[in-house]
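Handout, section B. The chain below has 122 residues.
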Amino acid sequence: MAHNIQKDSSNIITVTFNERVDLNERITAVEKVCTLVDPSRPIKLLIDVRGITMDMSLDEQQYFGEYLASKHELANAKVALLHKPRNNPNMVINATAYVKGYHVVDFDNQNDANMWLTGEVK
């Protein structure tokens, strides 16, 4: 499996991708995340793509961006995307999702991402 999902005590759901990841792997991860969402608490997601090798065509990336934006369980999520400096493999996905109303904030530092998710910085 090319992803790992954990939920911590501050209600941050972290999805870490490693290895080669295709569209099916990404959708599987989203479906698992949706089962962990507690609708009575703010949704905070940390998506770590620093170890990913993207195996998705441009059309698949656009489809996945639209898919993310359509997930009602994630509609009000606060989403931090953690990637390597100057190397965001999710650019097409993020741009497509953004146009559809799903917002992601990019980070290249995990501590900064966690602080933003917990509200320590804005």
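Note. The chain has four helices and five strands. Compare this with the example in section A.
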